[in-house]
Amino acid sequence: MSEATSDAIREGDALHARVRRAIAGEGEPFDPIARALACHQARFSEGYARMCAARGVDPSSSPLGALPAVPTDAFKLARVATFPAALDVAVFRTSGTTVGARGAHPMRTLETYHAAAVAWARSTLFAPFLEAAVAPSIVALAPSAARAPDSSLSRMMAWFVEELGAPGSLFAAVDDLDAVERALEAVAAAPRPALVMGAAFAFVHLLDRLGGRAVPLPGGSRLMQTGGFKGRSRSLEGGRCAASSRGRSACPRARSLASTG
User: Fold this and answer.
1) What is the C-alpha separation between 210 and 208, in angstroms, rounded?
2) CA atoms of 237 and 247, how far apart (whole Å)
3) What is the three-class DSSP state of 12?
4) Could you report how far apart the first and last alpha carbons of the chain are, in Å?
5) Segment 19-56, tens digit of pLDDT
């Protein structure tokens, strides 16, 4: 391992630790961490250094708002990382439905992603469940992290299922709608609230399968819809098919999954 790589890893480890402390509410404000990250990237990523030079900005002193963001297409054309591929523990990829090429985001550690995902889930999506001291029965409308190791969404959902869901929480991918229906019927009959989560296209396939048939979920249940339709279903106007615990929805057909509470 070269000296530059060793320096990048040591500095990267320190930055990860700073970010995790900040997520836990024990660290410093956002701005100094953001600047330190930009300086690290400009130092160890040749491509980002060229972007900064082309814009005439210095990550160490220019206003944070002037620092360039890496275009999403760059992740489809080149490796964007400050460490060698031999240190990858995961490579998350985009769906590739926009232009065909899949963007890649290599990860040297998942600890910081885990800390951020679980912390924000606790304070937002899972807050009502935590306040009621009840773990929801989760049905994740997606392939498991084992089946889709390059999906950051599946990885995040796996943490929710494993750490925040009730026993029996599971993945039910829409390529097996029979299994999805069985999972929904099981959580509908359970005495605890449910959380049904998935990408928008998964809900389209599910709602089409239900054909207007209601699956009343227990009181306090929630739906989490994320992402787009990915070219894997037709698009629905309005895009958001999520029902609240009172059964209100921005997508009328989502009422087929509304809570009864």
Assistant:
1) 5
2) 19
3) helix
4) 58
5) 999 999 998 999 999 999 999 999 999 999 999 999 99
